[in-house]
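re: the backbone from monday

yeah here it is again, tokenized this time
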């Protein structure tokens, strides 16, 4: 891993990879034992201990249940709350037209696609959505995947393999991290948003094909990658560029076309990944690219080849959502206005709101238990803002990750900020711990996190 200039160790060892073709090591890694034998009981006990340890560290996770569709107000575990952590940024998941399109598609096409895209799973509705997405993103062609996670796994694996080099931002989403690992390429992690470090890495490393990968809007911080500079570096160093627009599509750029379109760089990016599960309100994902690149993905992306095609209701729902976005681009502007409202109201409550204008607003808490306590405090006051802790974010940077949607009202967002302020003050009175620690803003976000890709 290119952790710092001058240090040229590889991340392969950290990613725990075994030699290709070594079947024994795979069995050992998978920890297989026969059901019902003594080993599995010991494993169960070990798992229980590990779970207790996670709870002790404030890192335990559990599933919370929502009744009904996503929206500004939901019933969470039986209690009405204001929802401040959904990625349904444009409020389209529950939109009548999106729901009706999904319902009609279920009746016409069936509930599932029945097979992989390459077996019998590609339906004309898949191609319709691919053509619409390609036009929306200003690219020649597009290919759908089962999810954003699978799209990153598939696309990175098709663009880099053993003997190649991938250059990856330290705060890239876990699906990119896992795509890098699975590709078995050499992975060079550059410091978050640090194009000097990227340039250094490109100068000093890079056997085989070279691929730069980055989120455009980062999922946990809401900051934006310096795309123009990254494009320039890719060009200068003969590297391909894959960008992930999961949190930018529908939120940024002309008509919500994303950060790449905002920077006018549509034709400078080799593979543009996006998800249907966030602003487009449904489920599934896509890669927009040249026709040749799409043909390459169809032939080489294992997550496409070996996985069932997206379900027709989700595809039809996404088509309807895309139509709504194109008909009503003002939703994107409303999202930005709402983001400003929440950011301003949080600042008025005394929070050190990190700079930026996107719909993702991190409130740094530092310690995982502090983040959990604040999440619970906010819930008691009727606001659900999820605590995000390692391994989703680096150790010591736990936070509440707030997300605004175009469906929130200004009043709801002001109310949420007040509830969060009360929760933070109550927590400080109880523990003496100020929130956020030091009120110093997001300087930790720039702190090098060299082990990140190895730990998430
Ligand atoms: C940047 C980024 N890429 C990809 C994904 C995965 O997308 P999906 O939820 O469609 O699997 C996410 C999900 O949170 C994400 O934040």
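seq for it, each position gets an aa:
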């Amino acid at each position: 891993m290119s952790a710092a200039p001058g240090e040229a160790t590889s991340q392969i060892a950290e990613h725990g990879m075994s030699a290709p073709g070594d079947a024994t090591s795979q069995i050992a890694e998978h920890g297989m034992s026969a059901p019902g034998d003594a080993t599995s009981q010991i494993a169960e006990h070990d798992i229980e201990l590990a779970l207790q340890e996670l709870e002790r560290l404030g890192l335990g996770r559990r599933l919370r249940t929502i009744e009904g569709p996503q929206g500004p107000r939901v019933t969470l575990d039986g209690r009405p709350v204001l929802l401040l952590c959904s990625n349904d940024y444009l409020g389209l998941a529950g939109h009548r037209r999106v729901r009706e399109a999904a319902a009609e598609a279920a009746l016409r096409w069936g509930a599932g696609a029945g097979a992989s895209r390459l077996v019998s799973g590609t339906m004309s509705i898949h191609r319709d959505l691919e053509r619409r997405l390609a036009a929306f993103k200003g690219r020649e062609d597009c290919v759908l995947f089962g999810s954003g996670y699978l799209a990153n796994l598939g696309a990175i694996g098709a663009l880099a393999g053993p003997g190649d080099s991938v250059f990856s931002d330290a705060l890239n989403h876990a699906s990119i991290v896992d795509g890098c690992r699975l590709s078995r390429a050499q992975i060079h992690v550059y410091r978050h948003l640090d194009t000097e470090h990227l340039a250094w890495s490109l100068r000093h490393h890079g056997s085989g094909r070279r691929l730069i990968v980055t989120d455009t809007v980062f999922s946990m911080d809401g900051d934006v990658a310096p795309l123009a500079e990254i494009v320039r570096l890719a060009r200068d160093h003969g590297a391909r560029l894959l960008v992930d627009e999961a949190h930018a599509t529908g939120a940024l750029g002309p008509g919500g076309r994303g950060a790449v379109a905002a920077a006018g760089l549509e034709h400078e990016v080799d593979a543009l990944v996006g998800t249907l599960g966030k602003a487009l309100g449904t489920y599934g994902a896509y890669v927009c690219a040249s026709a040749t690149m799409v043909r390459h993905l169809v032939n080489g992306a294992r997550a496409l080849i070996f996985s069932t095609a997206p379900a027709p209701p989700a595809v039809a729902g996404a088509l309807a959502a895309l139509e709504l976005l194109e008909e009503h681009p003002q939703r994107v502007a409303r999202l930005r206005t709402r983001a400003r409202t929440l950011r301003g109201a949080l600042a008025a409550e005394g929070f050190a709101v990190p700079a930026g204008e996107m719909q993702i607003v991190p409130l740094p808490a530092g310690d995982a238990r502090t983040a959990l306590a604040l999440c619970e405090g906010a819930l008691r006051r009727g606001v659900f803002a999820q605590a995000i802790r390692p391994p989703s974010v680096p150790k010591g940077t736990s936070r509440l990750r707030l997300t605004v949607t175009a469906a929130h009202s200004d009043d709801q967002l002001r109310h949420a900020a007040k509830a969060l302020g009360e929760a933070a003050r109550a927590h400080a009175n109880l523990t003496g711990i100020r929130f956020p620690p030091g009120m110093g803003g997001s300087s930790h976000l720039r702190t090098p996190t060299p082990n990140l890709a190895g730990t998430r």
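Residues 96-327 form a domain with the Aspartate Aminotransferase; domain 2 fold (CATH 3.40.640.10). The CA atoms of residues 84 and 409 lie 12 Å apart.
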